[in-house]
Design a protein that fits this description.
Structural class: alpha+beta
Strand content: 5-15%
Number of strands: 21
Distance between the termini: 57 Å
Pfam family, one: GDA1_CD39
Binding site for ATP: 180-184
GO molecular function: ATP binding; GDP phosphatase activity; ribonucleoside triphosphate phosphatase activity; UDP phosphatase activity
Mean pLDDT: 76
Number of helices: 24
Helix content: 25-40%
Transmembrane segments: 520-539
CATH class of the domain at 228-303 and 329-419: Alpha Beta
Family: Belongs to the GDA1/CD39 NTPase family.
């Protein structure tokens, strides 16, 4: 058996889907192989290169029946190349959708998720315990929290607090994420702010390899319409309002000189200009662009629950002495795709960055086109990327410094040629950078993706706890115990019992003191099973006396004559159950049964221990059918097919069995004979409930 556990997480974004495959040691092997340092750390989770395809799953909102073949199958095929076939049945798969799916109607979203789950179940062998758990649209706050986990996991803030001491007993890093539609922030406030805003925090619980629990209190929020695409849309709307309808050309300081684009962002050439259609014309003034994008922050919107940063959304005060932030997604692409690639020294500090942005965004569009064609900034930079990067740069600078408040202190004293990025990246390798902000894409070769946070949390949930009262891994409201909104990290929500706990103490704690709402029904069902077992073990005579005491007298007389239904059942319940099991399981056809003689062998197993492909049936009572052949184990594939397709044949097979079978008592007494040697006539079968005739 393999020592590895795998996990598949699909990031279903608005523009496309990415499948990430993660691997970690199974809990028992991890404990066995771990060093002392590793025992006091989270499980080691490694990732493989992901695959991204376009468009996003949300484009199938009106055609959910096409999402499997046209979208998911390519992702599944890639996952199959990484996850060994023998491990797939134990490998959980998650599809977690973000901004794009949130824009669909409730009906479209529900139908699409149902189709995704059904297709995954029917075409793959991956582990799916609950559709709602494995396929869901996650809120921006959850996305931000997973990203916070991923960043701190890679930076080492969880496993070695003493090496990441930022002061004031703080050792974790803040997380910033910006996509096309929204932006997220997640950080652990300092002690004073954490106490003051305790109700606004999320309680996050891990389990280390040795079973120890680690808890963190994190603030996370999202700003809708603060992603780069939505911010651009709001900017264009404001520009259209600024100029009346008589203006066809709208001056745009966020575009290079001479560039003309439509209100939707498409680059326009002279042959595409359509009469008096309104469009933007670049004026190449980056400082003016900064001033034009600043109002989009909505800094001065009423703050109902102070303090607030943007758009009236509450955020606890950030202590930048101890809160050091990493930014991913657009924070990385906007600062590095152009403003890093064309330079030997890879820099992001505000001074160097703005110098490069000013130079680029003050250029003529024709010159930029030549550089794109010459691949000055690499193969990935296209004309559309170059056309929109000046707006993105102004939006990012405003978000960081005027919105979130990342300090600019000391930047004016930096010397020309200062390589801030190199210093910060070197600090990351040493597990401890102290800059207020740094954009990152990979740390130690692993991409900082929120999907990694999901995988780390899941792997931690599989570590067995040290004792029975250990709380589950996951996150929820900042309350003691397991709050109502708690989201379990793994598929197994049951707390593992301690090896040192006695068996009696384990079941008593689970049934009487557990946190599951099902513990009372479980206890009731357990007592019912015990009562039935005792009743069956007390013997026929005691059961008969019980019937005489409890049942009405007329029912007792009928029982003494031949059963509550007027006739004693001529087949034992075990015989009937065996026969029904064989027919319903699809292991044989009803016509492959033949009857044994009445004096058959009693109380033996239906099948012998012979594992060959041909097996002979044995009788376990009067009239037990003999199984002629068990042709192939491949019949297991049709285990449920026979019943639905040949239900009429089954009924016929059962009827034949009852017509040709009778009890020894009836033969001895000769009761109810219609003619010599014929089976007993019954008005109805007590088991089948239909009339049986000769």
């Amino acid at each position: 058996m393999t020592k590895w556990q795998y996990g598949v997480v699909i990031d279903a974004g608005s523009s496309g889907s990415r499948v990430h495959i993660y691997r970690w040691l199974k809990a028992d092997r991890a404990i066995q192989d771990a060093s002392d340092r590793e025992l006091h750390s989270l499980p080691v989770v490694k990732s493989r290169k992901e695959l991204k395809i376009k468009p996003g799953v949300s484009t199938f909102g009106s055609t959910p029946d096409l999402v499997g073949e046209k979208h998911l199958q390519e992702l599944f095929d890639y996952a199959d190349t990484v996850v060994p076939e023998k491990s797939r049945s134990s490998t959980p798969i998650f599809l977690l959708a973000t901004a794009g799916m949130r824009l669909l109607s409730d009906k479209e979203r529900s139908r699409l998720l149902e189709e995704i789950c059904a297709y995954t179940k029917s075409t793959t062998n991956y582990l799916i315990t609950d559709c709602d758990l494995h396929f869901q649209v996650i809120p921006g706050e959850t996305e931000g929290l997973y990203g916070w986990i991923a960043a701190n996991y890679l930076l080492g803030g969880f496993d070695a607090p003493e090496e990441h001491d930022h002061g004031k007993n703080h050792h974790t890093y803040g997380f910033l994420d910006m996509g096309g539609a929204s932006a997220q922030i997640a950080f652990a406030p300092n002690t004073t702010e954490a106490i003051k805003h305790a109700d606004d925090l999320k309680l996050l619980r891990f389990r280390k390899v040795n079973g120890d629990v680690a808890e963190y209190k994190v603030f996370v929020t999202t700003w809708l319409e603060y992603g780069v695409h939505e911010a651009r849309r709001r900017y264009v709307e404001a520009l259209l309002k600024q100029y009346d309808s008589s203006h066809d050309e709208l001056p745009d300081p966020c575009l290079p000189e001479g560039l003309q684009i439509s209100t939707k962002g498409d680059i326009l050439t002279p042959d595409k200009l359509n009469g008096k259609t309104a469009h933007m014309v670049g004026t190449a003034n980056f400082q003016e662009c900064l001033r034009a994008t600043f109002p989009l922050l909505n800094k001065y919107k009423a703050c109902i629950d102070p303090p607030c940063l943007l758009n009236g959304v509450h955020v606890p005060a950030i202590d930048f002495d101890v809160n050091h932030f990493v930014g991913v997604s657009e924070y990385w692409h906007t600062t590095h795709e152009i403003f890093e690639m064309g330079h030997k020294d890879k820099a992001y500090d505000l001074k160097t960055y703005q110098q490069r942005v000013d130079k680029f965004c003050g250029s003529r569009w024709t010159d930029i086109q030549k550089d794109v064609e010459a691949q000055t900034w690499g193969k990935k930079v296209s004309e559309s990327t170059a056309a929109e990067v000046c707006f993105k740069a102004s939006w990012l600078i405003n978000m960081l410094h005027d919105g979130i408040g990342i300090p600019r202190v000391g930047l004016e004293h930096l010397k020309n040629g200062h390589n801030g990025t190199k210093e910060v990246l070197d600090g990351i390798k040493n597990k401890g950078f102290t800059d207020p902000f740094q954009a990152v894409n990979k740390i130690d070769g692993s991409e900082v993706s929120w999907t990694l946070g999901k995988a780390v949390l899941y792997a931690a949930s599989e570590i067995p706890p040290k004792n029975t009262n250990t709380l589950p891994v996951g996150f929820g409201s900042n309350k003691a115990g397991v709050p109502v909104d708690f989201q379990f990290a793994g598929i197994n929500h049951v707390v593992h019992p301690s090896k040192n706990t006695t068996e009696s103490g384990s079941w008593k704690n689970s049934l009487l003191h557990g946190t599951s709402p099902r513990r009372v029904p479980g206890l009731f069902l357990f007592m019912v099973i015990i009562c039935i077992a005792v009743f069956l073990l007390c013997g026929k005579d005691r059961r008969t006396r019980f019937y005489q005491k409890v049942l009405p007298r007329r029912w007792t007389r009928r029982w003494n004559k031949g059963g509550l239904f007027g006739n004693k059942p001529f087949l034992s319940s075990s015989t009937v159950e065996q026969r029904q099991h064989l027919l319903e399981s699809g292991l044989t056809d009803p016509y492959e049964f033949e009857l044994n003689s009445i004096d058959g062998v009693m109380d033996e197993d239906l099948f012998s221990d012979d594992s060959s492909s041909i097996r002979k049936g044995k009788t376990s009572g009067y009239g037990t059918p003999r199984l002629r052949t068990f042709k192939s184990e491949t019949n297991l594939d049709n285990a449920f097919g026979i019943r639905s397709e040949t239900s009429g044949v089954q009924n016929q097979g059962f009827s034949g069995l009852f017509v040709r079978t009778e009890s020894r008592e009836s033969l001895t007494r000769g009761e109810g004979r219609s003619r010599r040697g014929s089976p007993t006539r019954f008005k109805s079968s007590p088991l089948l409930g239909n009339t049986i005739m000769d």
